[in-house]
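Notes to self after the Tuesday call (sharing in case useful).
The group wants a holo model before anyone commits to mutagenesis around the pocket. I volunteered. Ligand is flavin-adenine dinucleotide. Logging inputs and output together so the record is complete.
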Amino acid sequence: MVRFVIIGGGPAGVQAATHAARLGAHVTLVEKDILGGAANLWDCVPSKAMIATGDLITQQARSRGMGLRSEGVVPDLGEIRERIESITNRLARSNTGLLDSQGVRVLRGVGHLTGPNSVRVETDEGETVDLEADSILLATGSRPRIPDWAEVDGDRILITRQAYPPKVVPEHLIVIGSGVTGVEFVHMFRCFGSKVSLVVSRQQVLPLKDPEVAAALETDFLSSGVKLYKGAKAVSLERTDDGVVVTCDDGRTINGSHVLLAIGSIPNSDFLNLSAAGVRTDKGGYIPVNHHCVSNVQHIYAAGDLSGKLPLASVASTQGRKIAEHAMGLDSLEHRHLDYDKAASAIFTEPEIADVGLAEADAFAMGRKIRVTKVPFAANPRALISGDPRGFVKVVSDPATGVVLGGSIVGRNASELISVIALAVTANLKVTDIYESLLVHPALAEALADAAD
Ligand SMILES: Cc1cc2nc3c(=O)[nH]c(=O)nc-3n(C[C@H](O)[C@H](O)[C@H](O)COP(=O)(O)OP(=O)(O)OC[C@H]3O[C@@H](n4cnc5c(N)ncnc54)[C@H](O)[C@@H]3O)c2cc1C
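Result:
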């Protein structure tokens, strides 16, 4: 029986463990905090739970346009914290049940390598357990990057993990970093009524996204009073008696009540004793892997954020599944390699933003011929009925074959609607496959069919 040891019980580790066990491996999963990982405890789940509450506040404000009078709502931070904890615990319990049902042995503690085929675990009970393995998966994730000029105090100078929720709703929050995490926190706190300033190191928020999509979000931010400091890199951070001052490299200073750092993450590879097994990392500390997620050591895999690929929970869990198949020798049968270029992703602002596959701007940069069709939600009956006709659907296809290559959606429920384009991109479906589907009316999805037409 294949002995498979996994360090890290986030989406990558849990998925690899359950799938490998189902395929017949003897699996031990080592986790030091909570099953479900940082995704469950610190990242995806709590951030989206906060945003869900924030969205209700803004929907309340919009209810006037729907023929209702509202007197406003007041957030209760204690109750919000309890709600997030209860969701996190519920998901952790469901992961425990899933792993139990597949016969996975879960060891609570901190794991590290002691050799190419051995792992040591310092358990929560203070014991040392040595494990032998035929295959090992390292899936220990990442943690927020803190620059050396910032002293995080959890009070006024925060990392994301301290904001679910913070002790008080910030009066004026300065968010440093305008990638996906940064803009989601801008949205979250503007909904809670904070004044928000965003330090944008380039000339566009979401520098890696389609410029038209980023522009739609910027317009929305500006219309709700968010202040953008473009082309500015924060270089220092000072705490004053009643707030914080951020200084930028162009000399501008921003005074606020709180600051939140959202400037990326660093991999949790430093405490794994990788040298004991000869596992190499790149300069950033990530473990480079091949298309099977194998590191430079043939039976040692790395997945999730630690692998330096797309830092998404969905990618991590799919990698975990593929690794389980490879470790069990099933990779040659029915095994489709993971294509990171086809990963759908979403940004949970309002309106939501989601995309998948080839972006229009990237196609132009490559000189690739594409057909782009775009439909605004303002022409969609359901969007008008629900009182939120912001945004658009854009479909990118091959003009010669009609095969769908990618798409972007800005608008309500974009994170759900993108699934249709993601399926089309993964399965090489054509635009006709989308617009000849008999969809529900009235539905936001009709905009997808219109854009594909
Ligand atoms: C604010 C924020 C919001 C995000 N929102 C989304 C989102 O909406 N959707 C999305 O797809 N992605 C989102 N992400 C990214 C997502 O959280 C990560 O890509 C995902 O968690 C990576 O999964 P993983 O399995 O690599 O590791 P993790 O989820 O980080 O889990 C790693 C686990 O390993 C454990 N561990 C670490 N070291 C050891 C050790 N030595 N021994 C034992 N256990 C150890 C940790 O305790 C942890 O439980 C978000 C990220 C951030 C920062």
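Two things stood out.
The radius of gyration is 23 Å.
Residues 77-101 form the longest helix (25 residues).
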